[in-house]
Each structure stands twice: as structure tokens, then as C-alpha cells.
Amino acid sequence: MLSSHFAIFCIIIVSLFALHECEIGNMEENLNASKIVIYLSPCVRKRCSFSLFKNCHCCRGKYPFCSKNIKVCEKECLRLNPPPPRP
Q1: In principle, which of 15, 57, 59, 82 could form an S-S bond with 77, CB 3.0–4.6 Å?
Q2: What is the pLDDT, as a whole number, of residue 5?
Q3: What is the reported pTM?
Q4: Dihedral sign computed on CA atoms, order 22, 25, 31, 37
């Protein structure tokens, strides 16, 4: 009976040590570090001119710009419609 009490006591001590190591500050840092960043392109696929196919990429922002190349569209859209500053 005494050995089982000693084993339970040891389990409790180890558990308390593990809880002590897991501080709230470390938990918040781990949560902030594990946030997933989703990139949303400033361009959307649309029709060019009178074409039936969606073969252009156009800006989502206030100032319009369209291009057949997605990289050119993203570069110009970010220049014309800069993202708002983060709080």
C-alpha cells in the first residue's frame, strides 16, 4: 500500500513540474508563432475586352488595372492600391 502511495505522489510531482514549465507567456508565444498566414492576391481573373474566356487578371482595389500576366498585375495593383497599414 505504501509503494502505491509513493507512486501516486511521484506522478503528482512530475505533473506539477510539467505545469510549471508550461507558463502562460510561452503558450502565448507559441500561439502567435503558429498562426497561419493566408495570402490573398490583389488580382482576380476576369474577361479581357470582348473575349468569352477569363484570360486577364484585374485589380480588386479602387484603381483598375488589367494584365494577361498575374505577376505584372500583382506588382501594379500593389503600387496603385497599397494595402492598409496593420493596427
Answers
A1: 59
A2: 79
A3: 0.51
A4: negative
